[in-house]
Amino acid sequence: MRKRLVLAMAGVLLAGSLTGVGRPAFADHCDPSVQGAECEDVGPALEDFVDIRQVPPGDTGVRAGRGSFTSRCGRNENGHRNSDNHIVTPGVSNGAHHVHDYVGNLTTNGFSTDESLAAGGTTCRFGDRSAYFWPVLRGRTGVGAQTAASPSPSPDEPGGASEGNVGRILLARSVTLQFRGNPVSRVVAMPRFLRMITGDAKAATNGGANARAQWTCTGFTNRLTSRYPLCPRGGLVLRVLDFPSCWDGQNTDSATHRTHVVFPGANGACPAGTRAIPQLRMTLAYSVPSGPSFAVDSFPEQQHNPVTDHADFENVMPDRLMSTVVSCVNRGLRC
User: What pTM does this model have?
Assistant: First the structure.
């Protein structure tokens, strides 16, 4: 059971510490105008963190073939963010109740359509207008402090402090968008406008059936954990977000956004009735504050549990570029 913490004021530093990692900071969910008010913490909890050196080597995520294609789209240097999700909650503003970082398509918001995305600009090379997005990661040391580059949201801002998402938004140091091969078969092209999600933004209350959170540190990529990793000094926190890669051959979306593209089996083979498509792996690297003082944005009831990490993708590559991706993957090249 998650230990819930009670703090005196937002941004206060806990008196305790974890061995060798400094003093943790957690944000509470109270009215900051009431000085000294006692408030119930909205997470994360101390048990949500683990020293990466204590995680045993093992599974490294979805198995893949030798070939790959990397789409270079930057790391959201232009600050394209909102709390929408046009895949899961289309036509709704603040449908996600937490802030997303976007790369690729410059127009993505809750009202995006296939047509609007096809007409949008992009941060990616080679005309890749795909929409790639994930919840932001925040540093929570000195919660409440603002910077010009990435202020904490106001209580009334969508996805903001009134929903427990507080702290300085951390810009990823690097974003790697890699499309990988299947280890047992050739892949076919993704259809244009294919929509996919990975992970479960409500995994803390839904259970782990759809959870796909994978966290680690630079230098320790042979060990993945569903908890926030505490990295050795100088190490970067990595979020590894693997997408499903076995397509039903017909649909670009489904009612649950999960049944039209599913994950392969443990050996990498796709289930009967599906065919392998290039498998998207997002790897996001961050420099975070020392100690357990960072968290992913979440729905309020999820308490910033790291198991809720997730990401979304809509393929808006030109057909010629997708053909290049398939060729690189099937020929075992690294493009």
Answer: 0.88
